[in-house]
Write a structure and sequence with these properties.
This protein is an alpha+beta fold and 564 residues long. It has 4 domains: 56-200, PH-domain like; 225-296, no CATH class; 327-397 and 458-558, no CATH class; 400-457. The protein contains 17 helices and 23 strands. The chain has helices spanning 13-17, 40-46, 62-89, 91-118, 157-161, 189-200, 231-249, 253-264, 269-296, 337-341, 359-364, 373-383, 400-428, 431-458, 496-501, 524-534, 536-539, and strands at 2-7, 56-57, 121-124, 128-133, 139-144, 150-155, 164-170, 181-188, 214-217, 300-303, 308-313, 318-324, 328-336, 344-351, 366-372, 460-464, 467-472, 476-483, 487-494, 503-510, 516-523, 543-546, 555-558. The strands form 5 sheets. A 7-stranded antiparallel sheet has the order 8-7-6-12-11-10-9, sandwiched between helices. A 6-stranded antiparallel sheet has the order 15-14-13-18-17-16. Strands 1-19-20-21 form a 4-stranded antiparallel sheet. A hairpin with a 4-residue loop joins strand 11 and strand 12 (318-324). Helix 7 (231-249) crosses helix 9 and helix 13 runs antiparallel to helix 14.
Length: 564
Amino acid sequence: MTDAVTGTGSGGPAERTAPPAGSPDPAPAAPRTPAPASSTASASASAQPDPAPDWRRLDPRSLLVTAQLLLGAAFGAGVPVGAGLAAHLGFRAAVAWVLAGSVLLLGGGLAVDVLRLRHTRYRVGAERVELRTGVLFKNRRSLPRDRIRTVDLTAHPLLRLLGLVKVRIGTGDQSAAGESALQLTPVRRAEGESLRRALLRRDTTAAADGDNPRLAALSPGWIRYAPLSFLTPLLALTGWGAVMQVSQWFGAEETVVDWVRDTFSPLPALWTVLALGSIALVTGFVGSLGLWTEMWWSYRLEREPDGTLRVRRGLLTTRSISLEEARLRGVDVVEPLGVRLSGAARVEAIATGLSRKDGEDDDLSALLPAAPRAVVDDVTARVLRAPVALTRQELAPHPRAALARRLRWSLGAALLPVAVLVALGAALSVRGLVYAGAVAAAVLLPAAALLARDAYRSLGHGLTGPYLVVRSGTLRRSTVALRRDGVVGWTVRQSLFQRRAGLVTLRATTAAGAQAYAAYDVGEAQGLRFAAEAVPELLTPFLVTEVEADGRAPAPVPAEGDAR
């Protein structure tokens, strides 16, 4: 496999033409003139900087939150531990040991939190936000105010009960990792809102006159899409695992197994499996509804006057997530198979500072839960300030050779378990395994062919105004609209099999989201032309053109000596 990588590095056109929002242009220095002698004292006095703001403390009610969390942890761990000790030491001795451990845990945790509160200070100055932490090792960090891009507020039920929030202040700088954000845990809710307004205030107004600030709001009917995700079977398996784990804590796993065997013994084995699977799916169904309600209750997506997108949601744990439009590089319309078949999709932001390698940022990038496509199209158009939904435009199809590749992959994956079952049946002289292999082949091979066909039909790419659009996937189809001036490089990959089929895979590199978005298995000339038209200054220097014999438009090919 060979790669060809081109890019502009940190000083590419995208970065030169798009300075960070909130950073004033440098003004030329004024010529210095001597001040009159009589005014020297007054000028010196006026030149003195304003006194620095006072250092602030975190809210001391954090101790109440810590105490409640530690009590919950002591109870959750003490019950199974106490049950295990009671079988060996007796009930009274087990209770004594559990109480002693709980007191030690509570006292130690509160002592640590007292030290944290005493040695944590923060202040918001005219130019910087500073945070001091540490007991044995002092740590002092600060963020320039003109680089702050996010101020997110989060409050779990205990914090909400006391009117507190956790504030996360970030610059959106991925290269700095944890150094690009400060966390204040906790402060009063009013103070958190005040910090958010003050730190995200900009001098310019990005919102258009007459623009409706509310881009989307929760519709209760959207909950019907929650069980259609792959989370439902995962929650079902988690539920069975939790039952077996709890029964093991109390030494009752044999009782649970015996109850299941006695309950379903009159049924054939196949019906028993189906019944247990149905119970698990119902558990996953209910769990997915509950999780969706917790995450998306009171959902609102708004555009504030300074151009900041704000998402507010949550039932028990409330979240307020801010995303400055200057960081926005596009959107990703995600369609898991079940959600797509029901005519719905969800929307995620592609923005600098939101890397999908970090699990927390996956949650921060969500702009819209699974919703009908009409709502998705309206939200994507309004978020990108486009007249129409860019992710619904007609895209260029990929060559038929891409379909052949997907058929080979899909059928090969389906034949593997079939071959294993048939081989074991032949080796062990067990006809049942051979029959199971035949049944698996009858079910898996047609399904594999259909998925391969759907994966091919999902492929597409195109250019729409200032955006390039790429689409791929079947179990999780993704349609990405990415700003062309946010592309800082192209990676052209071509395996041996792709070279024989005349295909390439193009990856647009950007400092946002997943950091690379691919157009898979594009025709070689077609893909290079697409990349050259999308961002001409990046790929064009590495290409030469060949005028085709029939007089059609010239097709770009890699320059001599470049990797293909």
